[in-house]
Amino acid sequence: MQLCLIATTRFERLITLARSEPLLAEAASELMRNTLMKMNLMRHLAQHSDLHCINCGWHRELVAALIIMQAHDAALRHERWVSVCKFMEALLPINQYKHLQNSPPSFWREGENRPFSKTFEDRAIWFNHVIKIEDGAMINTKLLWTFITRGAMIMCSDNQAGVDIVLPVCSTKGNLSHNSVTAILIQVKNVEQFGCSINKTIFDRMDPLKVGLFNEGSQKL
């Protein structure tokens, strides 16, 4: 379902925005999990630049969002929430996942130098659709919890500094609020030269403080 924001003369061009409809998205998500259509859809998105007014993004961000959604669905069991560790296990090859489990953080505060599996053992995600934002200021913990209530992952505006997709993450202990959320920040590249190698300078630009995920002086994770 789309909302029409702008229509030019004679409807030569329409600018639309996808609505956040959690119940409709849940029904579509259930359909995708129970069919093989999602496999054909990913190939179609990756190989076609013109999909009749569907914008896949400059770097095929929509393809990346579909890969993420598939990993989420693969990790989903009977509960609505998906643990971050289970999500990563479904997203990554087994060898890379095992390495991630035991990996320490690149930076940490005193007393928090714990491996990935311990750091995120009580963190979870839930989403069944994508919302594209136009204001980078929305990538902040004070607002991220509201996307979780809608069951949405976030696709950032074009040219957003260093981040293309944001996955809100919530603590499974306590109430949902701005004090209990963090996020997984994703940058999408479809240039062959990047491949599977890690470019540290790209990750450095995804600094949570510079992106605005946390306010200066924040003590929350």
Tell me what the structure shows:
With 221 residues, the protein is of the alpha+beta class. The protein has one domain (22-106, 114-211). Helix content is 35%, strand content 17%. The strands form two sheets. Strands 3, 4, 5, 6, 7 and 8 form a six-stranded mixed beta sheet that branches. β5, α7 and β6 (152-155) form a beta-alpha-beta unit. α2 runs antiparallel to α3, α3 (61-75) crosses α4 and α4 (84-91) packs antiparallel against α5. It is globular and about 65 Å long. The two termini are 34 Å apart. The mean pLDDT is 79.
Unreliable stretches, pLDDT < 50, 5 or more residues? none
List the secondary-structure elements in sequence, H or E: EEHHHEHHHEEHEEEHH
How many distinct helices? 9
Cα distance spanning the termini? 34 Å
* Coarse morphology: globular
pLDDT averaged residue by residue: 79
Helix-strand category: alpha+beta
For the biggest sheet, the summary is: 6 strands, mixed
Amount of helix:
25-40%
Quaternary state reads single chain
Number of strands: 8
Domains (count): 1
- What portion of residues belong to β-strands? 15-25%
**Structural Rg:** 18 Å
